[in-house]
């Protein structure tokens, strides 16, 4: 409003005063020619040139322009306030004059083509604009991959699960996973273990619930307002469909957030510097046997498709980091767990076990 008002005042006052001055000095015959010349000058000097420079050098000009604009807004307050009141009174309540998502999408695409936005900036902007089209169910960790703790677990059991999975927040359920009663935070659990608290119920924090159909755009401000970093996702029947973290939601804007040990694609087999072999848990059991050289009885292979599934079945419980399973020719040690899945294993050859295992 300040820019528009000042622009209008400058053009109006400038045209009026200069027109009157030309008429007084040279008479009416020169007034028409002067008006045409003034229009062209205003168009070139105050419209085309400034906007072109601003579009090309916006990073350098934005800060000084903002300081000037702040002074202008302060000076123009007596004029801007009544103009704003008139504008608001003419606009129906609840109706806002905003730029549509499609218009923003077009503007960002133009910015990318013109070089104002680089590819990464354009992708982030595009994800934000389309955030209302992404549902919570599309970004959640599904129920089958959730790590959850029963309400009757001990503090020691909770610590083991958190250490094994690397999770700092874990849902707590009563009887079944469909009845989530809250979450446990690692910081609270470790404090309780040092202070002698054994009742898990004293540590359980409230957790918000969200339907799987809820747009990510709506859940982010809700979680920020409640200052929580995890929500339980429920299906249409009220059962637990999965969970979603604030990190999952942020990844929908900035892209995948990986730690320094993660790669874009899992590596099936990777030799380590200490002589062991790192194996992806999703490697087929047949490929793992062929590569690692161990053998299984025919009945042992039944029911397992992957090497991770074999270890999971042998353990017959939730896998933890450091768990080992002996096979003919070596030992398989759990190296990384995500939810209920074994992400990576270490294969320790039989003749090298003494160096790795206590």
Give the terminus-to-terminus CA distance.
Answer: 74 Å
Any idea what the CATH architecture of the largest domain is? Roll
Unreliable stretches covering 5 or more consecutive residues: none
Share of residues in strands: 15-25%
Mean pLDDT: 81
- The best one-word shape is elongated
Q: Which structural class best describes the helix and strand composition?
A: alpha+beta
Question: Nearest-angstrom radius of gyration?
Answer: 33 Å
Placed side by side, the strands forming the largest sheet appear as: 8-9-12-11-10
CATH topology of the largest domain, which one? CBS-domain
The profile of the biggest β sheet is: 5 strands, antiparallel
Considering DSSP H and I runs of 4 or more, what fraction of the residues is helical? 40-55%
Along the chain, the helix and strand elements come as HHHHHHHEEHEEHEHEEHEEHHHEEEH
User: How many strand elements?
Assistant: 12
Provide an overview of this structure.
The chain has helices at residues 2-26, 29-56, 58-75, 77-90, 101-114, 119-129, 136-139, 155-165, 186-195, 216-226, 246-254, 285-292, 298-301, 307-315, 353-356; strands spanning 141-142, 149-150, 169-174, 176-185, 209-211, 230-234, 240-245, 269-271, 277-280, 324-327, 330-338, 341-349. With 358 residues, it is an alpha+beta fold. The protein folds into four domains: 2-90, no CATH class; 101-133, no CATH class; 136-254, CBS-domain; 269-356, Uridine Diphospho-n-acetylenolpyruvylglucosamine Reductase, domain 3 (2-Layer Sandwich), CATH 3.30.465. Helix 1 (2-26) packs antiparallel against helix 2 (29-56), helix 8 packs antiparallel against helix 9 and helix 10 crosses helix 11 (246-254). The relative contact order is 0.07. The model has no long low-confidence stretch (mean pLDDT 81).
């Amino acid at each position: 409003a300040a820019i528009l008002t000042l622009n209008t005042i400058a053009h109006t006052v400038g045209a009026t005063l200069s027109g009157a001055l030309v008429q007084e000095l040279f008479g009416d015959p020169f007034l028409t020619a002067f008006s045409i010349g003034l229009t062209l000058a205003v168009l070139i000097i105050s419209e085309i040139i400034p906007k072109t420079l601003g579009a090309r050098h916006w990073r350098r000009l934005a800060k000084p322009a903002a300081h000037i604009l702040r002074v202008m807004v302060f000076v123009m307050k007596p004029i801007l306030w009544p103009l704003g009141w008139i504008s608001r009174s003419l606009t129906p309540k609840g109706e806002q004059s905003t730029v549509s998502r499609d218009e923003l999408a077009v503007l960002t695409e133009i910015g990318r083509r013109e070089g104002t936005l680089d590819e990464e900036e354009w992708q982030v902007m595009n994800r934000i604009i389309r955030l209302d089209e992404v549902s919570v169910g599309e970004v959640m960790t599904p129920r089958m991959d959730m790590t959850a703790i029963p309400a009757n677990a001990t503090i020691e059991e909770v610590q083991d699960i958190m250490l094994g999975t690397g999770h700092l927040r874990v849902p707590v359920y009563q009887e079944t996973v469909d009845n989530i009663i809250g979450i446990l935070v690692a910081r609270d659990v470790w404090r309780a273990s040092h202070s002698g608290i054994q009742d898990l119920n004293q540590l359980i924090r409230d957790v918000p619930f969200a339907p799987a159909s809820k747009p990510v755009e709506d859940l982010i401000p809700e979680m920020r307002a409640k200052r929580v970093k995890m929500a339980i996702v429920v299906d249409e029947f009220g059962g637990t469909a999965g969970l979603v973290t604030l990190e999952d939601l942020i990844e929908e804007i900035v892209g995948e957030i990986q730690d320094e040990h993660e790669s874009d694609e899992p590596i099936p087999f990777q030799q380590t510097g200490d002589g062991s072999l790192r194996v992806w848990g999703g490697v087929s059991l047949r490929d793992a046997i062929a590569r690692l050289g161990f053998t299984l009885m025919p009945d042992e292979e039944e029911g397992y498709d992957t090497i991770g599934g074999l270890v999971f079945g042998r353990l017959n419980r939730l896998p933890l980091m450091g768990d080992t399973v002996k096979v003919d020719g070596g030992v398989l040690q759990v190296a990384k767990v995500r939810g209920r899945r074994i992400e990576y294993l270490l294969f320790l050859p039989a003749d090298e076990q003494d160096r790795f295992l206590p």
